[in-house]
Design a protein that fits this description.
Distance between the termini: 37 Å
Strand content: 15-25%
Structural class: alpha/beta
Strand order of the largest sheet: 3-4-5-8-9-10-11-12
Number of strands: 12
Mean pLDDT: 95
Order of helices and strands: EEEHEHEEEHEHEHEHEHHHEHH
């Protein structure tokens, strides 16, 4: 599988990485509904078998559960896997309430807890999950830099940061990576952030490249309207009217391009994200082995100029009709 160097680091990531948000299960505010741990373990092994060399998780996914599943699964093969996780979202005990903190003492508690759940000695890429509270960014990022010096983490990155927030952090310590949402349906980073990252040696790791499943081509109006309350997508504008119908119509047109190329819409969506040299890799979530086996193949795909232009026409139509 193709690899790309991540920002200013010595990490070479496969262009497809395994995301474990759904593996946290449905028993938390932003869960994806119930998830069987055995299926999660099989999906992780399938990803590694496909050549994927890194896993992205976060402490808040299932309030620690995702990290625990990953930790159990990589036991004995730790040196074969690059582990990325995140901090900044906190909870107390068995509480389901999610708090926000980038205070030094909070981040230090979080890194120790993540190391324990993952059963590893050092985190390869530690990321601030959200830039909140904004006034604590400097304290939080300075703490992250100290963790690098102390050897608890190898490299540090951020997620969901604005351009101004990136510049504030960069003034304290170099940023290895930015993890933003990026897909055919969410292109905000193309305005300014992508160019800044390219010129600053900040690797971009795109999350939700298939827009939480919408860009798999497997969503119907009936499926969207029947999502359980435990699935956060049931409350997202992309999955409810009036946006849902427009999105599904555009996706139908995109699927025709994929069909003509002999690939799936999921693979087309990933190839589109990875067409940018500034994007190091894309995170692909999986609940079962079959899902990751399909999407991993996108690492070797490329799009023609004509295909990219056809996609642009469809995406412009979507924007004009929202």
């Amino acid at each position: 599988m193709q690899t790309r160097k991540l920002g200013n680091s010595e990490l070479y990531l496969t262009t497809i990485g395994l995301g474990t948000w759904a593996m946290g299960g449905g028993d938390w505010k932003f869960g994806w509904g119930p998830q069987d741990d055995l299926a999660s373990v099989k999906a992780i092994h399938a990803a590694l078998d496909q050549g994927i060399n890194w896993i992205d998780t976060a402490a808040i996914y299932g309030h620690g559960h995702s990290e625990e599943v990953v930790g159990r699964t990589i036991k004995g093969i730790r040196n074969e896997v690059i582990i990325a996780t995140k901090c900044g979202r906190v909870w107390e005990g068995d509480s389901r309430e999610i708090g926000k903190s980038l205070r030094a003492d909070s981040i230090r508690r979080e890194v120790e807890a993540s190391l324990k759940r993952l059963a590893i000695e050092v985190i390869d890429l530690y990321q601030i999950h959200w830039p909140e509270p904004d006034e604590e960014i400097e304290e939080g990022w300075d703490t992250m830099a100290q963790l690098v010096k102390e050897g608890k983490v190898r490299y540090v990155g951020v997620s969901n940061f604005s351009l101004d927030q990136l510049k504030r952090a960069q003034a304290i310590h170099s940023i290895t990576s930015l993890q933003p949402p990026y897909s055919m349906l969410r292109r905000e980073i193309e305005e300014e952030i992508m160019a800044y990252c390219g010129s600053s040696q900040i690797g971009i790791i795109a999350y939700s490249p298939m827009q939480a499943g919408l860009l798999t081509g497997k969503f119907t109006k009936e499926r969207a309207t029947s999502l359980p309350d435990s699935d956060w997508r049931s409350r997202h504008p992309f999955f409810i009217e009036p946006q849902l119908s427009v999105n599904l119509q555009a996706i139908g047109q995109l699927k025709e391009i994929a069909d003509n190329k002999g690939i799936t819409l999921s693979q087309l969506s990933l190839a589109w994200v990875l067409r940018n040299k500034e994007v190091t890799a894309a995170i692909v979530g999986a609940r079962s082995p079959g899902q990751i086996e399909e999407t991993a193949k996108a690492s070797e795909l490329s799009l023609t100029k004509a295909e990219i232009e056809a996609i642009e026409e469809i995406l412009a139509w979507r924007i004009n009709n929202l």
